[in-house]
Fold this protein.
Amino acid sequence: MGQNMYEKIWDAHVIHENTGQTPIVYVDRHLMHEVTSPQAFSGLREKSRKIRRPDFCLATMDHVVPTKDRDKPLADAVARNQLETLASNCKEFGVRCFDMTSEKQGVIHVIAPEQGFVHPGMIVVCGDSHTATHGAFGSLAFGIGTSEVEHVMATQSLQQKRSKTMRVTFEGRLTDGVSAKDLALALIGRIGTAGGTGYVMEFAGDTVGDLSMEGRMTLCNMAIEAGARAGMVAPDEKTVAYLKGREFAPRDREFDQAAAYWNTFTSDEDAVFDTELIIRADEIAPQVTWGTSPEQVTDVTGCVPHPDRQKSDDARKACENALEYMGLEPGTPVTDITIDYVFIGSCTNGRIEDFREAAAMIHGGKVHPNVTAIVVPGSGLVKKQAEEEGLHKLFLEAGFEWREPGCSMCLAMNDDVLQPGQRCASTSNRNFEGRQGQGGRTHLVSPAMAAAAAIAGKFTDIR
Amino acid sequence: MEPLVKHRGIAALMPRINVDTDQIIPKQFMKRTEKCGYGKYLFSNWKYREDGTLNLDFELNREEFKGASILVAGDNFGCGSSREHAPWAISDYGFRVIVSTSFADIFFSNCFKNGILPVTVTAEALKSLSDEIEATPGVSFDVDVEKQELVTPGGTVIPYELDGFRKESLMKGMDDIDRTLKHTDKIYIFEEKQNLKTPWLWKAM
Ligand code: SF4
């Protein structure tokens, strides 16, 4: 019987396995940021331990960094302490860190691929759930907790149970105006936020093959919102082409050798998955979430649902709570929902392609007078490229703000925060209560949908 | 870590589904660089009203649930971010056991690393536990890690599954790192092999 991609990567990394014990697997790449690492570094220090492979680590500052006025000292003393702690920890333990003075700084899940740090067949971890993003490269990438961060630092390995596998096959061509984000939201709408619990998802099918690396990253990024441990896409010529020439990719003859090795990490024809799901991608419309969970989502042509028509009592209650929090009436057409704020950025949609798609929706229009719209590049290099392409001018002329890279309003740990009651069209990944600021109301959409909403002042069908 | 072998404690009922880690510990409390002291911020957005006063409608603020150490909650508990601040807050608040029909993966494994036992039960079992709490708020349950059983005064006995490895860690209050370091020789051997197979990964960068 053939093996699937997950099984191949897993088998290539098992260090120790005994019946009745959690297996230990080797970790090839460890990514770090300021929020989930300080307690792990302290743990090492307390026990006089070292990082086993500091050269396999990459750190950056993203969650709490300001996205404007970077020349001024950070007003938030607690946040400043967190950044300084990361910098000094990295120095002490010999970890490479892109700090705010570096052009390579940005959201960790944007910069690691950009640097060619993640390759097919690797196991990649980070103290951050959206580590799933890196599965787009045919790696097994998942988020871990801070205790595990310390464990990986000390041992370059992890105690980890095997997951079940689910293959999600998307078939058909995406219609214009529909993107990887919509695929992800439609999937979550269908299977729910716990639909993937216990599974690693492989995304397959011609639709996924047609996606750019950026699109695949968006899709894998959201696998975690479907409850999956990780999402992954088989490596192909796009993967190899993307990696070529990047800072941490192998070079010359070794690159070809590596590429041949990478290509072995695809599911065999006769591979078996615990669960299979096939979705027609050509039938998917642009998606908009209406509630406080990514599964509370509908087509842009849809309406805010009625709690009474939910499948179960729990779902009815969840729906009622969400509508109350979101300040929405059942039956309201999505395209009647007006917004106050637009956030374009995050590790889901803060890459160059996302900005191209967003900028293409401007058509010389202006941001609606009732709307504040910010565009936050995922990294310094994304920012630079967007500026080289003149995208920032399109945004600025239309009235969008053009910011410095970071997580920003994806989780609002810096100054980019919604006020209570403000409604935001956001390209991020979570619409949880308070995620973008206490009382803030988040609607998850694609970059193109967000840009169009900024100009119309409400959601519109961009097709 | 404090070992967990047998535990008796007041069970608090929180009948909500999809309780996410952003609610368990709101992000404004995550800028600290310590591991302790998060208990007072647990469910802070729900516990307090906007004006800072105690929200008496919030389940955990019920008088009967004061000092509770077992949390009984709805489906998909702990979804959302991987922040370990969530189990830190839960344990600092005083909870040792969480009961639900399902848990999000990362949260589930984070619990064991912090001496918390997540107990997965069937929907019927959850209903019966909830009913018993509602009927006698403030009731205490017994949780036996060795026997893998949860017992209520009403006589309900609920067996639950527990991985042998994790059971031992909980019962001994053992650190995962120590356990893995026992296999350091195997880590070396693995690295040697990888070095031959994928030399490009192993060059000093
Ligand atoms: S952009 Fe958002 S989801 Fe991504 S790492 Fe930052 S906070 Fe997490």
Remarks:
- Chain A has 16 helices and 19 strands.
- Residues A 62-63, 107, 109, 128, 130, 346-347, 407, 410-411, 428-429 surround iron/sulfur cluster (CB under 6 Å).
- Chain A has a mean pLDDT of 96.
- Chain A touches chain B through 71 residues (CB under 8 Å).
